[in-house]
Amino acid sequence: MVDPDDLKRQLDEARAALEAIKGKPGDISPLAPASVPAVHPVPGVTLGAAAAEVKYRGRDDVMLIRLEAGSTLAGVFTRSATRSAPVLWCERALAGLTDTGEAIGIVANAGNSNAFTGSAGETSTKAMAGHTAQALGITPERVFVASTGVIGERLPHDKITAVLPGLSTTLRPDAWQKAAGAIMTTDTYPKVASARCKIGNASVTISGMAKGSGMIAPDMATMLAFTATDANIGQAALQKLLEDSTAISFNAVTVDGDTSTSDTLLLGATRKADHDLITDAADPCLYDFKAALDGLLRDLAHQVVRDGEGASKFIEIRVTGAETDAAAKRIALSIANSPLVKTAFAGEDPNWGRIVMAVGKSGEKADRDALTIRFGDILVAEKGWVAASYREEDGAAYMKAQNLTVTTDVGTGDGKATVWTCDLTYAYVRINADYRS
Amino acid sequence: MVDPDDLKRQLDEARAALEAIKGKPGDISPLAPASVPAVHPVPGVTLGAAAAEVKYRGRDDVMLIRLEAGSTLAGVFTRSATRSAPVLWCERALAGLTDTGEAIGIVANAGNSNAFTGSAGETSTKAMAGHTAQALGITPERVFVASTGVIGERLPHDKITAVLPGLSTTLRPDAWQKAAGAIMTTDTYPKVASARCKIGNASVTISGMAKGSGMIAPDMATMLAFTATDANIGQAALQKLLEDSTAISFNAVTVDGDTSTSDTLLLGATRKADHDLITDAADPCLYDFKAALDGLLRDLAHQVVRDGEGASKFIEIRVTGAETDAAAKRIALSIANSPLVKTAFAGEDPNWGRIVMAVGKSGEKADRDALTIRFGDILVAEKGWVAASYREEDGAAYMKAQNLTVTTDVGTGDGKATVWTCDLTYAYVRINADYRS
Lengths: 437, 437
Known about the structure:
The structure is a homodimer.
Chain A (H helix, E strand, L loop, with lengths): L3 H19 L22 E6 L11 E6 L4 E6 L7 H11 L8 E9 L5 H19 L6 E8 L6 H12 L7 H7 L8 E9 L2 E10 L12 E6 L5 H13 L5 E2 L9 E6 L17 H20 L7 E9 L2 H13 L1 H8 L5 H10 L10 E4 L2 E5 L2 E2 L5 H8 L3 E7 L5 E8 L3 H9 L3
Parallel strand pairs in A: 4-5, 8-10, 9-16, 11-15
Antiparallel strand pairs in A: 1-2, 2-4, 3-10, 6-7, 7-8, 11-16, 12-13, 12-15, 13-14
Helix pairs in contact in A: 3-4, 6-7, 8-10
């Protein structure tokens, strides 16, 4: 005789097991910050968002930023050989940027990345730049364009250009969170950050937003970041500062090792702050500013990893003792991108053998018999073997935490680097294997 | 009122869905050959297997091959910086190999890879070589040792050396399949292949076995292959032949992009065949032999991919139009190793945008606006955009097949390469995230 209550209980269990494996689309990442942080307005910056319904319904999907006349701007972009029409546009616009006494515009849309769209891609980018320029009363070459979402489909740019005149009249200094929401694709939460620092006696603000959920998922989740400061910094110095800071933030995170066709990171400087113009990135006055910029970009980059597709663990990988810093970074990325390392983290398995493997395959010099591995403060391996003091149950207990640190010294030099990544879960497969079906 | 039959039906559905996602440990890969092929004995080669219970119970886990006096031997090994004690032993043994009028031995065990085991690793390797040498009546430096399985754990080599004397008395010419079974770890089927060809008027045999299931899973699934021929080929020529053939077989497959600490591929030549000694790998007499060797190694390498952890699709990636053959191979591997490409295949999603992305991130030159992509014979993309003739339903129908071919021409030169891979499924995550728990 079958007991219906017992069947019901077994059914509930099976369904819970299914949900535990697959997750629920629409869930906010378990690694998300507890709340969306407050954002300080940046003097000289206004922004806003609107719904153009390019792909999504019932939400904003176009964002516009205006930087007042006199601003400088820096940018870094994907190095992909198949980068999108908007990226190519921005590279040209940045190369030609001079102070014409006009404002600068940044326009971005979500839902369609306008990547790999042949000659139509350039047409759409030009249309977005042209209409934004008209709405802001500036020349088109002063408009920076970014698109994120599905690739290979013609961008219905008419929908975007139709909302730009109205959107341009609603720009406000305090709409960072609203704008951050408009550029989300597979992101499960909006990503903003804000910092204050001193340049000389002047108080300076840096604020920014980012989007991204795979390091790349060219259909839906390319990485975009728009940041601005009121610091009075010249174009070339600003570019140098942004490149240096990117190397230890956005270029030190990985979700799946894949590289976007659309990655775009911009930093505007409105030069409203009350200090003398700085034209040298090495100016000692910038000590505090650099630290704040590094912290802000790192914060945004970490938020991207914390929203990594299917992520359940946030992992810091520290490598020391490499031949050079660059070698250390390659070893760290070899660990961070290894599917076997990432699945071990997903399984809360203190599988240090896979760290050894990933060090070995990096192509960099490592001294197997001097290799040290630590999980958090726990010494796991040393001198080419498991440490005498290591107990597997300690490693297993450590792996239960949501935020993990793995440190490895490869014993060949003084080079060091830190990168951040997430684990590889069933949910990653669900998101990327099932999402178009 | 709850209907028990309805509940039962729902429960069966939920359980079937769970099994479809997770698979069943112990299932044979859906991509396995229909049957284990017949293997031709190789004159001068005897082999066998025995159960030492290093880790597994109730199955063979030690394999021994004897190549008669006068044989030559070639080998290629992992380039990992953290390679195992047996690999280091084999590299030294190969470098010092001369014709001493003695036989050659190959001994391998499954269940423990003796990798990252400090100084104990060398002790265990020496013990295996020493006892094998004693059993075969040869010097230890003529014994090649391989171990596969969990890493970082001391190899209980006494268990292995205890069975060697008995095993050495049971060697037979026809035990290839038995021996192939003894080196399996996470493999779901034994991998053997065999070919016959002509050198001059002489009939020559090549036979071999392999194991591997992840390209690497240092705990359980490193790649080993042992092959032998009766061809009369000198040491240096044999080495060159093996290296050339490996480049287009074992070095052209990837399951997860990770690299083993133990990969070992050996090719012995007993020189029993009735033709003159060949000392130049470029000798025109070898035309047929080369083709047979290429085919045999490719067959074994494909069998490894077809047993890839969690694999449900076997995928051939062809790249043409690159600057060089090496550039083409890097582009092909960039596609084959991309988690986003591999999960799209798992989802039977004709997601050509991810191919574009993977070409772009390879670091090699590609002409975005000349790029062509084909799924099988279906033209998907050309001239920087989706092809006018392409219909998504055709791509989706093609993706349902178990064996897939993706061809991309990157439009910059004459370089070409082919690699083989499998998809990235829930089962890959299950095998690698859950297996130690």
